[in-house]
Every structure is written in structure tokens, then in C-alpha cells.
Write a structure and sequence with these properties.
The chain is 52% helix and 5% strand. The protein is mainly α and 325 residues long. The strands form two sheets. Strands 1-2-3 form a three-stranded antiparallel sheet, with no helix packed on it. The longest helix has 20 residues.
Length: 325
């Protein structure tokens, strides 16, 4: 008998934590998904990693999408990614002879465009951060920073004081997979951060034990993602925005969409967002194209396809004039 499935999972998770430096959130997700996989195989009487067949993996995906509590396609795809990672690791380390999960395809994902607010709505959202108290100033700095840099919430709360360089107007963001990137910070965000650092952070820091974190909670410790998300929702409520239009990634989506709508090159936006592939960034170009199509439909004389007569303008005598050449 070769390696037990449960032992292979434990070795794989250890590899992710120690050698790959995966985040705690990734490890939690993989632990949950691979726990489901172990249970699935045990139900089939499979305990040996080398005894797993391709059909066992594909049936696992089917089981996730059916039953009493079916998972969404995105969640099932994430679980399959964990399983494929496990088998790839086991094959590379010689624990099994063949990668049986390699050819198993994830369930088709519905194509969803990220929701983005208009520029006026973003102004409305930022105006929802009211109050001159420490937490009010902190929340304003947080939201301004998210919109100015396109940072993920986890990246923003992970910032330390030394990561912000007001002189060069940049911030160092630590992205997924341990990849770092330097992103410009706009003047309104810098002004909000300066107000927070001067008038709020010292009071918050006095309640804690000392931390290099840039953004602090009411106890003087590093602000959590959950608290940052709560600040965003609170600002949206105060601003009177529809809660369905606000998510943890709202300001990141707005950052990308508004840059592209303003003429920024998609590869520049890719670098600013920290996307490994430009294909991930290009989903935002669909939103921009929709906006351009709407402008075209209302502005171009032939956009509605109502015949050649619409191409010209009506003169004073009521006749159409020829378009100038």
C-alpha cells in the first residue's frame, strides 16, 4: 500500500505553507476542500492515493454540484483546483505514478462582469465617511486608499507604516503569492492618510501594544479585513447607495474601470492591479466597451440604423445637408 490520501493531503498542505508561503486564507480554503475530497474517496472505499482514478476526481466535481447542498460553480472549481494541486504535488514528488486529476475540467462558470460605481457614486461613497474622530478619519483614509490604488482590502489592511512613501507618492502592496508591487497614490488619498496619521493614529496606537500596521482598530491593533469591509458598508449606507452595488472589491473594480474608461492601457492597469495575466484584467474592458456603445448609440447619426437620411443635418430650409468631407 502506498501513501494514504489523508497523509498526502497533510504533506501537500505543509508544502503550501512552508515552501510556497500560501496565505492563511488559502490554506483554510484548501483544508476545507480537500477535507471534502477525503470524505468523498472514503465513501468509495479508497484510502490509498495511488488507487484514485480520473473518474473518482470527475465524480467528486459532480457530487459537489449536486446533492442536498450543492456548491456554486465557482466554489466547485476552487475545490477542483485544490484537488488538482494535490495530485500534481503527489506526482511530482513520486508519491503516485500518474496525475489522474490533470485532465478533469472544472464546471463552466457563468461570465459575470464586476460591478462598478460611477465616478459620482464613488464621490458619494467617500462622502459617506463622516466624523472627525479617530475611526472616522481612519475609514476615510482606508476608502480613499482603496480607490486611489486599486488595492485589495487584504492588501490595504496588511500595510505597514514604512510601506507608504508620501515623498514619492507611492505605496508598496503585498499581493497574492508573495508578489509585491509599487503603486502611485493620488493626492486626495495622501491628504486623507496624512489627516489620519496626524490626528487619529496616535490615539488609536496608545490603546495597543505597539504595531507597525498603518491602519489600526479601536484597540490599537491591526485593522482586520472584516472591520474594513464593515467600514465600506457603513459608508455606503450613509451615502444612500444600494447595498447590492457594494462589495469588498467595489473600489478595486471602480479603480480599474475608471482608468480604462479614461484611456489607460490595459497592461498598465494589469500591473497596477497585480494580475498575473492580462486576460484577468481584460474583463474590465467589456464594461468600458458597453459605456462606449451607449455613447455611440445616442450620439452617432447612423447608430440607430434608420436610413441614410440621418447622416446629414437639417438646414434652415428643411433640407438635409451633406456631411462635410
Amino acid at each position: 500500500m502506498g501513501m494514504r490520501v489523508a497523509d498526502g493531503v497533510e504533506a501537500f498542505l505543509s508544502h503550501l505553507a512552508v515552501e510556497r508561503g500560501s496565505s492563511a486564507n488559502t490554506l483554510r480554503s484548501y483544508t476545507t476542500d480537500l477535507g471534502r475530497y477525503v470524505t468523498h474517496l472514503q465513501g468509495r472505499g479508497i484510502d490509498d492515493l495511488a488507487a484514485v482514478a480520473e473518474s473518482d476526481v470527475s465524480d467528486f466535481v459532480v457530487a459537489l454540484r449536486s446533492g442536498e447542498a450543492p456548491l456554486a460553480a465557482s466554489s466547485a472549481a476552487r475545490a477542483l483546483a485544490a484537488v488538482r494541486g494535490l495530485h500534481r504535488f503527489a506526482t511530482r514528488d513520486g508519491l503516485v505514478p500518474v496525475d489522474v486529476a490533470r485532465a478533469v475540467a472544472p464546471p463552466a462558470l457563468p461570465r459575470r462582469l464586476p460591478k462598478a460605481l460611477t465616478i459620482d457614486q464613488v464621490d458619494q461613497l467617500l462622502a459617506g465617511c463622516v466624523g472627525d474622530g479617530p475611526t472616522g478619519l481612519r475609514d476615510r483614509a482606508l476608502l480613499e486608499l482603496l480607490y486611489s490604488t486599486g488595492a485589495r482590502i487584504s492588501e490595504a489592511v496588511g500595510l505597514d507604516l514604512d510601506d507608504l512613501d508620501p515623498g514619492s507618492r507611492t505605496v508598496l502592496l503585498r499581493g497574492k503569492g508573495g508578489k509585491h508591487r509599487i503603486v502611485p497614490v493620488g493626492r486626495p488619498a495622501l491628504a486623507a492618510l496624512d489627516a489620519y496619521l496626524v490626528r487619529a493614529r496616535p490615539d488609536l496606537a496608545a490603546k495597543g501594544r505597539g504595531t507597525p500596521a498603518l491602519l489600526l482598530n479601536a484597540r490599537g491593533a491591526r485593522l482586520s479585513r472584516q472591520s474594513a469591509w464593515h467600514a465600506l458598508r457603513t459608508a455606503a449606507d450613509v451615502a444612500g447607495l444600494d447595498p447590492t452595488t457594494v462589495s469588498p472589491h467595489t473600489l478595486r473594480h471602480c479603480f480599474a474601470t475608471h482608468l480604462l474608461a479614461g484611456g489607460a492601457d490595459v497592461r498598465v492597469v494589469q500591473e497596477l492591479l497585480g494580475h498575473a495575466s492580462v486576460a484577468t484584467t481584460q474583463i474590465y474592458t467589456h464594461i468600458t466597451v458597453d459605456a462606449l456603445r451607449e455613447v455611440y448609440a445616442t450620439a452617432h447619426p447612423r447608430a440607430l440604423g434608420s436610413g441614410p437620411g440621418r447622416a446629414g443635418r437639417t438646414g434652415r430650409n428643411g433640407h438635409r445637408s451633406r456631411p462635410s468631407r
